[in-house]
Amino acid sequence: MTRRPIRLLSALFVVSGVLLLAACQRGDADKALLESPAVGDLYAAQLSEFSDYPFTDEDQKPIDPAYGLLKVVSADTAGVVVITENAASAEKSVARRDLRGDLSTIVFDESEQIQIAKTDLIQAHADGLIYVVKRPTAD
């Protein structure tokens, strides 16, 4: 009877290890994309750390911290220029879900262009301010 909990515990450790390894590899892939940014890259990020403008919900109540997408509109060896998504959420998971969904429905605010040095970009990822990176492929 005591073997079953031990087997279950062993299986749980194996699954946890696999998930941890996958998370580390995703982080390495994101860091590699940040080290060589390209126009069109999308970042799930804490928008309120990058934008000078406040974000509000549909009832005009402030959202802080505000999460959403950043889009790279210019990139060179020094860093990037990004624009923010028009919508923001108090939930990190919404931006993650947006990256997996139909990106053609996302509207970006072209009026505020934010410059981020490459070293600051990498540090923002290390600090968790940028938490998912996606480089859309050409169709």
Brief overview, please?
It contains three helices and seven strands.
Helix content: 25-40%
Q: How many individual β-strands?
A: 7
SSE order, one letter for each helix or strand? HEEEEEHEHE
Strand content: 25-35%
Low-confidence stretches: 16-25
What is the number of helical segments per DSSP (H or I, 4+ residues)?
A: 3
| Cα shape | globular
* Structural class estimated from helices and strands: alpha+beta
Describe this structure in words.
This protein is of the alpha+beta class. The protein has one domain (3-134). The chain has helices at 3-35, 92-100, 118-126; strands at residues 42-46, 55-56, 62-63, 67-75, 79-85, 108-117, 130-134. The strands form 2 sheets. The chain has a 5-stranded antiparallel beta sheet with strand order 6-5-4-1-7, sandwiched between helices. The chain has a two-stranded antiparallel ribbon with strand order 2-3. Helix 1 packs antiparallel against helix 3. The longest helix is centred in the first third of the chain and has 33 residues, at 3-35. Mean pLDDT is 85; it is low at 16-25.
